[in-house]
Amino acid sequence: MKKIFALFLMLVLALSGSGCSDHSPAANDEAGKLNIYMLNDNQNVRDAIACYAAAAPDVEIDIEVGVPDYDTTVSDALKKLNTRLLSGNGPDIILMDDIQSESYMQSGQLLELTDIVEEAENLASGIAENSKYNGKVYTIPLSVTLMANISRADASVDFSSLGKFNESIKAEHAVIGSFDRQAALWYRTQIEPELLWRRGISEEKLKTFYQDLYEQMDMIYGNDEESRFASFQQINLQALSGLAAPHVFFKKIGAAKEYIDTLSYLQMLCSMGNEGGLDFSFCRWEDKTMYIPMNRMAISSKSQNPEGAAALIKYLLSEKGQQQIAESTGCIPVNSKVLRSAMENSEEWENVIGGAGSYKAKPFTEKDVNQICNMLNENSYSVTTDGILMEIIMLGAQDYLNGALSLDAATAQTRKKVGIYFAE
Prior knowledge:
5-stranded mixed beta sheet; globular
């Protein structure tokens, strides 16, 4: 279980442990206090903020976590946040991961970041463009997570839909990866884009999704009643990799959808693919490569220190800030120059992967570097998850899969909640 941090935890920073060099930010005169809100605890953001704080030691930073435990729902956390914002007592910076930002932008709760983004050198053009809302920018990610379809090189696996995936896995007599992570990935890639676009979901599509999840649960757990339990609380649905690639490569499992959230994991995946040990492709929506904008920063219009908040974001988007994020967190940076340099200068490394085997990852090839950089600079689709909608859909699935509700009841209840959510 992830370590749970208390609300309003004071960020204690030691330069020796942060992995950050002592560079002063371009604008660090805005000393004072900054309160940063994140829905789910995020160690990568903590590490990124540690880099800024090491360069701006006069700034006192508090971090607040909205969902600190399994008992707190996304809905409850965001209701509390919204109440604070309406009362004028909001945080300075809101981490918008798993928060649908449209309503906050429409209601004037976020300050415009367009100038900051336009001034940021070498920001990947696709990411900059996808961050716009009505031509303006209100949220900007510090890194990205990719999503990949991975299968054994000797297997024929159909990733075009969850139902077809299940059929092809059965035909191959293959084993698949972690159920909870797979379910969340299928939601993000198959259900969420259309759900947000149509502002609703049909009874047929939702029933099919729930039935396909049930079939996949059967494939993974069979008659093992002790293990057969779906747990889709928000804290279990975060976009974190599960090391499916090496398990496919060493033929422990046959196929899986997977989050690619670090440069080292991306290097390992490309290396394994180049060796012919597995096949992979990045997930797509229509003709666009999908990515999750991670560590999305926004400044509250109720901020008591908007200049200080802007200084932090400017620094973390700068070349130095992005280099430090890549080095201290391992995340995939949004700065094209930093990303290309990190891949071009990658070195061979070897690691023992628990439950799979020992693997020596080769450096990125020129083809790898160009493909990934071009992907983020050109034709891409940003998956900005709405945590409340994901919670509604997945908790409905949980009720059905665990036998608390029938398929009809779970579908009807979920569609009613979705309708109410979009009507509010």
